[in-house]
Amino acid sequence: MKIHILAKAYALTIDVGTQETILEIKRKIERCLGVPISSQILSVCDWELLDGLDLEDYPIVTEGTKIDLTINHVTSLETNKQVQITVKFSSRKHVIEVDKIETVGSLKEKIHIIDGTPIKQMMLYFTGVEMNDDFRKLSDYGVGEFSEVIVFLKTMSRSVAEPPSHKLGFVVQTSSALLDSTCLPIEMKDSSTVTELKELLLGRKFLPLDDYIFIHKQRIMRENCSLRWHGVENGDYLYIFKGTVSRG
Fold first, then answer.
1. Buried-state track 86-108, b at ≥16 Cβ within 10 A, e below 16
2. SS3 breakdown of the chain: % helix, strand, coil, rounded to 5?
3. What pTM, to 2 d.p., does this model score?
4. CATH number of the domain where residue 143 is located
5. In b/e form, how buried is each residue of 221-244, taking b as 16+ CB within 10 angstroms?
6. For the segment 100-148, what is each residue's pLDDT rounded down to a tens digit?
7. Which whole-number Å values give the CA distances from 81 to 77, 86, 212, in the listed order?
8. Domain residue limits at 42
9. Greatest CA span in the chain, whole angstroms?
């Protein structure tokens, strides 16, 4: 499919596949426009597209989508930060491309999108040291090319793992492509699922009958998982786009 890359001084149309990674798309931009990969920031509707993911993880990117290219002018000491690391669970592992100046929190979000593991349940270790500060850079912990990050899952008692549900106030933001851009204040139990949220919006006639994708903090939400599972907190924004999530 064709997508359009837009920047202040550039406009580029390229052919991409749904299984291409964001990093591969950046390589195409580098070849066509000469903009170094390390200087590129790609975003759609102000959501940054993460290098370690592919277009299948962003169903909002479809034929003809316009992707904004921001050129981040960095010093030579900050270039060539892209590295490949292995994220290892007890029974599985994933190879992920990251930037060494990314934070631990950003890595957890990538793992969540790729593997589905709840962020709040992750404990990341590198060379025996827990990476317990989500705001520190991976490079602060010494993570580099071919590093192996171990993921342990927090063991919680049932009372901790399933706390009593409580009311949650958040805002649902519809996209301008869907209908007139609207902010809808919603109050639901945090144990409510995304499916129940969708049914609520359809039942109140806030949305026409259709298929929708819900996004929270750049992550596609799973229909059968609760708002609590996704880490939704009071005052957060959820974004809605038309479409479905499918895997080839």
1. ebeeeeeebebbbbbebbbebbb
2. 20, 35, 45
3. 0.43
4. 3.10.20.90
5. beeeebbbbbbbeeeeebbbbbee
6. 778 898 899 889 888 888 888 899 999 888 898 888 888 888 898 899 9
7. 9, 16, 36
8. 2-75
9. 56
